[in-house]
Structure formats: structure tokens, C-alpha cells
TrEMBL record:
Classification via PROSITE patterns: SER_THR_PHOSPHATASE
EC number: 3.1.3.16
Lineage of the species this protein comes from: Eukaryota, Fungi, Dikarya, Ascomycota, Saccharomycotina
Molecular-function GO terms, alphabetical: metal ion binding; protein serine/threonine phosphatase activity
Matches recorded under SMART domains: PP2Ac (SM00156)
GO biological process: glycogen metabolic process; negative regulation of mitophagy
Protein family according to the UniProt entry: Belongs to the PPP phosphatase family.
Gene Ontology cellular component annotations, sorted alphabetically: mitochondrial outer membrane
Superkingdom of this protein's organism: Eukaryota
Protein name: Serine/threonine-protein phosphatase
Keywords: Hydrolase, Manganese, Metal-binding
């Protein structure tokens, strides 16, 4: 994909949308303008935004742009469907720039119908290690500002959302430093994601059914949290459930503790090799009625597969994929691991991967 050079001021949102839906990159100048406008739009948002159903939640996308388009085909195109994105738009996949560009244009075009929460990958440090930085340099050149434009914008993204005063939504999970949502409201979010503390935990933590309380996470940031912590958080704040993303699920979603905590994972065939399903969570009208909430499960778009074969056809030792760690040490192994998994995928025997994002 080549960068289109704009000689005229192309700042018409409909024109941007048309280009992006066709997979065309916007110019750096247009991206700079879009990022400025989005920052202006969300700078006054509280760290926790309140939204009303109906809304459709989307988990990790990780640059799998053609699967994002598949989500709109399945779940409805904005503005006909309201979307709450739970973060991790970039890194891993081939099209982080197309993905985040489309999402910010949609946010500008339909501000009340699109909510973008920050994930742990919306960070300078993590994008340097997991692909987004490299993609920016490859597609826009080493002297471009595109990576800075986006990572500066990430500092403005909100930290969490509450749907119908009932559902608490966040990228990762709970924090020992967040007993009540008031302690989220007071965070100064306009900065790089810290190594620790409540802001880091909200984006890095994971539920663990073996646990009662908190335990330091093996990811190198955030915590694993158990049922007592969940019960207390729900009770104190008057919520019914927690929805979060951040962990690959072979079935596209995972339900913990009878639905008190739920994972929504929206990157099918993660990294073009995991063979997993994906889901979006549709909350129809009354989120207190269990029948009005459902996971809509889907498979990878055929275009995603085509894109993988086009790019990797002769080069199966790509560095795409792995276990995310705060220190950037990739736990997925090298190229032989990759080929093993690729073979699994081709044999339709999906490898079960329990714990990574
Ligand atoms: Mn994540």
C-alpha cells in the first residue's frame, strides 16, 4: 500500500471515510489534522464515559483491518450501530494505521455513536516493540511524524466506560488502587501509560478463576484478580458486570464467574495464525435483561487471509505474533514456532492458546 500524496487540503470526513473503507492511506497532513480534531473533541471527556444501550462492544483488533470491516458487516455500519471499542487498535497485524485512521474518522463523523477506550498497546513503549512504529516508518518514511501524531493522540483516549449505569467496561481489568470509580475519575490520563499504578492496571490486568484477591501479573504490568475483588468492586459501585478485552479467547469470548467478568476478543485468527474465533458483544436495549446481551461470534474475513498470503506468501518466518509482555520480550518463540502454528491453521486444527493477548 502506498501513501497518497495530497496536494490539496483534503479534510472532508466523507472523503476520508471513502478512502479508508477502500483501504487507502490518508496523507500525513490529513492525519495530523484529524488527530488534532479528535483531541479537541475528547479532551473534555471524563476518564469514565457514560453511555446508553443499544451499543456493540468490540475487543482487541490489533491492526487486522479487514476483520474490522467484517465487524461492520456483521454488526452494522456506523452510525446505524453504536460502538464501544475496548482498545488495542494497533500492533501485531499489518494494518494498524488503516485501523486507527478509520476509527478516528468515524469518531469525528459520529461523535456520540463511537467511543474509543485506551488499551495497553496505545502506548509509545509498546508500539515501539510490537509493530506499529515499524508500520509507520515503512508506510510513511523514517522522517514522518505519523507515529508521534498517533501516540500523542493515544494520551487523550478515555480509560473506561459505563453502559446503562450497570456494565463497567475497560481494556484490562481491576486494580488494587481502584476500589471505587471515583479513583478512576481523578487520574491524570493525559500521559504515556505508566509502568504501574491504577492507570496501568486498568489496561494490563486479567481475571484469574483460581484467585480470590490480587496477584502480580506475569505480564510485567498490572495484576491478576480474583472473585472476591470482583464481588467487592461490583457491590461498592453498584454494577452488575465487567466487560473487558485484552486476552485471546479461542471461542472469541470468555465468561468468568457466571458472567460477572467477560472477555470480548475481536481479532479472529489472531496474527493470521492462531485459528481462533472472534466476537463482538451486542447490548440491545435493556442491559439488565440477560436476553438483551449476546456475543456475536465470527471468523476471519477471507480478505484477511488473502492479505496474509500476499504479504507472507514467501516469508513464513515473519516476526508477527507472540505473547505480550511489558518488557517487550516476545514469548511466542521464533520462526519454527510460527510455522508449526501455520501448519495447524492450514489443517484446521486450531491451536488452543489460553493466555496471551
Ligand atoms: Mn491488551
Amino acid at each position: 500500500m502506498t501513501v497518497e500524496i495530497d496536494t490539496a487540503e483534503v479534510m472532508d470526513l466523507d472523503e476520508c471515510l471513502e478512502k479508508l473503507y477502500n483501504g487507502t492511506l490518508l496523507s500525513e497532513r490529513v492525519l495530523e489534522w484529524l488527530a488534532f480534531k479528535v483531541k479537541e473533541l475528547i479532551v473534555d471527556d471524563a476518564n469514565i464515559v457514560h453511555i446508553q444501550s443499544p451499543v456493540t462492544m468490540v475487543g482487541d483488533i490489533h491492526g487486522q483491518f479487514y476483520d474490522l470491516l467484517e465487524i461492520f458487516k456483521i454488526g452494522g455500519y456506523p452510525p446505524n450501530t453504536n460502538y464501544l471499542f475496548l482498545g488495542d487498535y494497533v500492533d501485531r497485524g499489518y494494518h494498524s494505521i488503516e485501523t486507527i485512521s478509520l476509527l478516528i474518522v468515524l469518531k469525528l463523523k459520529y461523535p456520540s455513536r463511537i467511543t474509543l477506550i485506551r488499551g495497553n498497546h496505545e502506548s509509545r513503549q509498546i508500539t515501539t516493540n510490537y509493530g506499529f512504529y515499524t508500520e509507520c516508518v515503512t508506510k510513511y518514511g523514517s522522517d514522518s511524524k505519523v507515529w508521534s501524531i498517533f501516540t500523542d493522540l493515544f494520551d487523550f483516549l478515555v480509560l473506561s466506560a459505563i453502559v446503562d449505569n450497570t456494565l463497567f467496561c475497560v481494556h484490562g481489568g481491576l486494580s488494587p488502587n481502584v476500589q471505587t470509580i471515583d479513583s478512576i475519575s481523578v487520574i491524570d490520563r493525559f500521559k504515556e501509560i505508566p509502568h504501574d499504578g491504577p492507570m496501568a492496571d486498568l489496561m494490563w490486568s486479567d481475571p484469574d478463576i483460581e484467585l480470590l484477591n490480587f496477584r502480580i501479573s506475569s505480564r510485567g504490568a498490572g495484576y491478576q484478580f480474583g472473585i472476591n475483588v470482583v464481588n467487592k468492586f461490583l457491590r461498592i459501585n453498584g454494577f452488575e458486570k465487567i466487560y473487558r478485552a485484552h486476552q485471546l479467547c479461542n471461542d472469541g469470548f470468555q465468561v468468568f464467574w457466571k458472567g460477572k467478568v467477560n472477555t470480548v476478543w475481536s481479532a479472529p485468527n489472531y496474527c493470521y495464525r492462531c485459528g481462533n474465533k472472534a466476537s463482538i458483544l451486542e447490548v440491545f436495549d435493556d442491559s439488565k435483561n440477560p436476553e438483551s446481551i449476546r456475543f456475536n461470534v465470527f471468523d476471519a474475513s477471507p480478505d484477511s487471509e488473502k492479505e496474509f498470503l500476499r504479504i507472507e506468501g514467501n516469508n513464513l518466518s515473519s516476526g508477527v505474533g507472540g505473547v505480550d509482555r511489558f518488557d517487550g520480550l516476545d514469548g511466542f518463540g521464533g520462526s519454527s514456532d510460527f510455522e508449526d502454528n501455520f501448519e495447524h491453521r492450514m489443517n484446521k486444527k486450531a491451536p488452543y492458546v489460553e493466555y496471551f493477548m
